[in-house]
């Protein structure tokens, strides 16, 4: 998948168009389009349609849309069916599939955007505190375990969102 910035370069657009013709999705949300242009239009239409649908549905509960609430409930039900280990393995397999589909750079880009979203949700101070804990983690011990062992204070209330 490519960013909007990458798609501005005429040579890159030509390469992407060539990839799209046999059916590869090169624009996030452009699945099904057989050219770069058609994938961009599909993605834009799907985005607008999703936003309109969100407005129609309104919000349920703590600022979540009904789509988010339904998704959360579905995830919880699936976790119950599979158990903790099975649910974690399922997530790992999806992660590997995304990595394969997006390629290394696309996967990194997606992770960077997720990190930025989380930083917006919990603020600079909370994000820094969460990073402190993550930086302590090793293969064998979680960041929380190491912090406790080494007497490092981590204020988790700074990065817990109010809905959790």
From TrEMBL:
UniProt-listed PROSITE patterns: SMALL_HYDR_PLANT_SEED
Extent of Basic and acidic residues compositional bias: 1-22, 41-132, 142-164
GO-annotated biological processes: response to abscisic acid
Pfam family, one: LEA_5
Region (Disordered): 1-164
One GO cellular component term: cytosol
InterPro entries in the record: LEA_5, Sm_Hydphi_plant_seed_CS, Small_hydrophilic_seed_prot
Family per similarity comment: Belongs to the small hydrophilic plant seed protein family.
The name this protein goes by in its record: Uncharacterized protein
Species, as recorded: Malus baccata (Siberian crab apple)
